[in-house]
Specification:
The protein is α/β, with parallel strands linked by helices. The protein contains 18 helices and seven strands. Helices cover 50% and strands 6% of the residues. The strands form two sheets. The protein has a four-stranded parallel sheet. A three-stranded parallel sheet has the order 5-6-7. Helix 1 crosses helix 3 and helix 8 runs parallel beside helix 9. The radius of gyration is 20 Å and the shape is globular. The chain binds iron/sulfur cluster (2 copies).
């Protein structure tokens, strides 16, 4: 992409990040308090993969200095989970610097092609995982009808699925819609917006690719008479909802809530042995989702490093990487994470569909499949409402 086609949202992000990177370098005391929270550091056990090293690598990219393969590794093994910020005495937002540096690399054609494809799919057809949205559209219609929801019918509550639900997990999509209906809410869905855009905006570091989805969504809200957007349990979409304004993306003009916030107080909070909250719900929401908070009173929650747990290992698009050595490094991270979780429980519940995918992948790599069960929260909500 040439400089003159860079959208306003990207231009603003890069300008902010250049200044913030210099401030972060001045502030950072190299105390490494943050390192304790960093999943990629713990899994890869090298001073290369610390948050402080990521500030340096991001600053280099944002200043336009030449970078090497190791700098790319440092940036693309960051899960952009924000756990380090929670422990940093200065609150340095390392993940936002990594995000901006990766956005710049994407514009320069230096982003791994597997992540670039997410943004290109989104720009082309409005679905991060496929270049053509025909099949996901069919999946949406089938799952919605099974749940008793007629697609494109008018309604006050518009449910926007994650791209995982219209590809890998139509059962979770059906369960999410059933959960809303069991709570006495009547959601609608639309075949015109299949993806909120969080995966493209954050994992592929291309907020500009989310603009078309948000603009389309605004038009559909008017058509259907929808007043509330209900987001699925995708951490990336929640991150986008929380950060759209800071990124200069178009507002929707309506309330955006998570599925779990919508059903809170209407459905009984289900029990869980180990609740894995995900960064999308525990760090990037203005407040922790109330349903998760009430579940956490009875369940155990992995608190590797207070106040928050570490990442599942798949944030920041790590789960989409296909290129070596990044995919191999990712495998080490998710397998390490799964082993840590498996040591704490034999049943893990998560609200985030990405954590659900990544923890299962990690268990497979760690040869722990069958020993630990991973349950998506929408399915648990539906089971416990009968
Ligand atoms: S955002 Fe997460 S993965 Fe990245 S440096 Fe911070 S703790 Fe580590
Ligand atoms: S905790 Fe903050 S100041 Fe200390 S090394 Fe990490 S980013 Fe730097």
């Amino acid at each position: 992409m040439s400089g003159n086609t860079v959208s306003e949202s990207l231009r603003g992000l890069l300008e902010w990040a250049r200044e913030y990177a210099e401030e972060a370098r001045r502030l950072c005391a190299r105390c490494h308090l943050c390192t304790a929270a960093c999943v990629s550091y713990h899994a890869l056990r090298s001073p290369l993969y610390t948050p402080a090293r990521r500030i340096e690598a991001a600053a280099k990219v944002l200043r336009g200095e030449p970078i090497g393969d190791k700098d790319l590794e440092v940036l693309y093994t960051c899960t952009m989970c924000g756990a380090c910020t929670a422990l940093c005495p200065y609150g340095i937002e390392v993940w936002r610097l990594v995000h901006a540096a990766r956005a710049k690399l994407s514009l320069e054609g230096k982003q791994p092609p597997s992540l670039q494809a997410i943004a290109e799919n989104m720009l082309r057809g409005g679905h991060s995982f496929t270049p053509s949205p025909e099949q996901p559209r069919r999946v949406l219609v089938g799952a919605a009808r099974k749940a008793g929801v007629e697609p494109d019918s008018p309604g006050r509550l518009l449910y926007v699925p994650s791209p995982f639900e219209t590809t890998l997990y139509p059962d979770v999509l059906e369960a999410s819609l059933r959960a809303l209906r069991s709570a006495g809410l009547e959601p609608t869905v639309t075949t015109k917006v299949l993806d909120f855009g969080g995966n493209a905006a954050f994992d592929a570091s291309r907020p500009d690719a989310a603009v078309s989805a948000l603009e389309k969504l605004r038009g559909v809200l008017n058509e259907l008479g929808a007043e509330v957007v209900v987001l699925s349990g995708c951490g990336a979409d929640h991150k986008l909802a929380a950060y759209a304004e800071k990124l200069g993306l178009p507002g929707l003009g309506v309330k955006t809530v998570s599925l779990y916030e919508a059903v809170h107080g209407r459905l009984e909070a289900p029990g869980a042995q180990l609740l894995f909250p995900s960064c999308g719900f525990a760090r990037f929401e203005a407040h922790v989702c109330p349903l998760l908070r009430s579940m956490a009173r009875d369940a155990s929650v992995p608190r590797d490093k207070p106040p928050y747990t570490m990442c599942c290992g798949g944030g920041g698009g790590l789960n989409y990487l296909r290129e070596k050595p990044l995919a191999e490094l990712r495998n080490k991270i998710v397998a390490w994470r799964a082993r840590k979780l498996a040591a704490q429980a034999d049943s893990i519940v998560t609200p985030c569909i990405k954590c659900y995918t990544v923890i299962r992948h990690g268990l497979l790599l760690a040869r722990l499949v069958g020993r630990v069960k991973v349950v998506h929260m929408s399915k648990l909500l539906v089971q416990s409402s009968y």
